[in-house]
Amino acid sequence: MTFILDTSKTLQVQVYEYMHDKIVNGKLGPGTRVVEQQIAEETGISRSPIREAIKQLKSEGLVASHPRGGVRVFRPTSDDFKYLYECRLSLEPLAASLAAERSNNIQLTEINELLRKMKDIMEAEDFEHMKKLSRKFHDLILECSENPFLIKMMNQLHSLILFYRNIILTKTSRMVEGFFEHEAICFDILNRDAKSAEKHMRDHIQKDYNYYLEQYGYN
């Protein structure tokens, strides 16, 4: 992400977005030091907005103060990974169930159109684009749940979910499998089958978790 000053946003927001992108997309790897002077040189932004942006990243769990001083990008442990997926396994199946019950016709059309785009992108083997559409699919289902408390809880986890997906999900075979799992969830929502939507979403999240454990040896 090349930094280009945007006068429509505050400096704090701009530097936050710049750093957030670098972290969740792996350009600043786990354990990497976050150096204010370096960020200032890259962006041309003064230290004060940078410090505020770092505070926001800390609140989201993407960076943390190091015992020996300074700030570093969050380095996840196997337990961190497990705890995050425990939350996802509880919250996202509920969102899918509620989406099947509450989605309006406009939302159902949007879900169906998004799935069609995902199929086209998958067939074109544009897997980087596929990641973005997959994220949008999950976000849209959450929005369709029409439950503001559920949305708030998931939004608090949003940055960490992106972080994990982008540093761990690298195999295209899992992305292809994931598309067909998304397709099943979409079918359930379109057919107002809340029970099946909940089950298929739980199976999808569990398969992601199992896949990660197999690939990276967490236990």
Description:
With 219 residues, this protein is mostly helical. The protein contains 9 helices and 3 strands, in the order H-E-H-H-E-E-H-H-H-H-H-H. The chain has a 3-stranded antiparallel beta sheet. A hairpin with a 5-residue loop joins strand 2 and strand 3. Helix 1 packs across helix 3 and helix 5 runs antiparallel to helix 6. The chain is globular. The model has no long low-confidence stretch (mean pLDDT 89).
**Average pLDDT:** 89
Largest sheet: 3 strands, antiparallel
Q: What percentage of the residues does DSSP assign to strands (E)?
A: under 5%
Along the chain, the helix and strand elements come as HEHHEEHHHHHH
For the termini, the CA-CA separation is: 34 Å
Q: Portion of residues in helices? A: over 70%
Give me the side-by-side strand order of the main sheet. 1-3-2
Secondary-structure content class: mainly alpha
Stretches with pLDDT under 50, minimum 5 residues: none
Radius of gyration: 19 Å
Number of helices: 9
Number of strands: 3
Shape, per Cα inertia axes: globular
